[in-house]
Give the backbone structure.
Amino acid sequence: MFELETGRLHLREFTLDDVPALVALDSDPEVMRYIGRGVTYTPDQTEAAVHRMLEHYRRHGYGMYALVYKPEDVVIGRCGFKFWEELGRVEIGWLVARAYWGQGLAYEAAQPVMAYGFEQQNFSEIIAIIDRPNLASSKLAEKLGMRFERELDFGYKTPDCYRIDRAEFFRRKVF
Ligand SMILES: CC(C)(COP(=O)(O)OP(=O)(O)OC[C@H]1O[C@@H](n2cnc3c(N)ncnc32)[C@H](O)[C@@H]1OP(=O)(O)O)[C@@H](O)C(=O)NCCC(=O)NCCS
C-alpha cells in the first residue's frame, strides 16, 4: 500500500470516502481549465473517476494519490501516475485546490512521487501532458527535470508532452 510523508503532506491511495473532497476540486472551473476537455465534472463523474482510480491501483500497482494537507487534515489535491494504454507510457499528473496554489505544495508532492516511480516502480521514463498555456504546470515539469519532447494530437487539443527518463532522473538526484 502506497504511503508517503513530506513536510506538509501525507500522500496515500484514494478511497470512496474521498469523493466529497474530490467533488469540490473537480467542480472548480479554474482548477479544471487544463484538465481533459477543460470542463468541470458533475459529482457522478467524479465518483466514476474515483472508481477508475481504484481499478488503476488494482491493475497496475500504482496510480493517482491523495494529497492530505497535514496542518488541516484535509485532502487538497492529487498527484500520481496514469498508464496510457494507447501510448504505452506512464504519465505523472498533479492538481491542487485553488486556495493552496503558489505555496510549493505541488512540487513538494511531485518530487517524491517521481522518485517513487523510478525507484520503487522501476519506470524507464515518465511523461507529463500539459496544455501550452498552463504555465504553472510546465514550470513544475521543468523544475522536476522534465523537458519538452513533442506536441501530441488528441483531436480536440494538441497538448505538449514533457519527458524525463530514468538515467536523467538518477543523474539529477542528489544523494
Ligand atoms: C499546476 C498546479 C498543480 C501547481 O500547483 P502549485 O502548488 O501552485 O505549484 P508550486 O507552488 O509547487 O509551483 C511549482 C513551480 O511553478 C511555478 N508556478 C506556480 N504557479 C504559476 C503560475 N501561475 N505561472 C507561472 N509559474 C507558476 C512556481 O513559481 C514554481 O516554480 P519556482 O519554484 O521556480 O518559482 C496548480 O496550478 C493546479 O492545480 N492547477 C490546476 C490543475 C492543473 O492544471 N493540473 C495540471 C494539468 S497538466
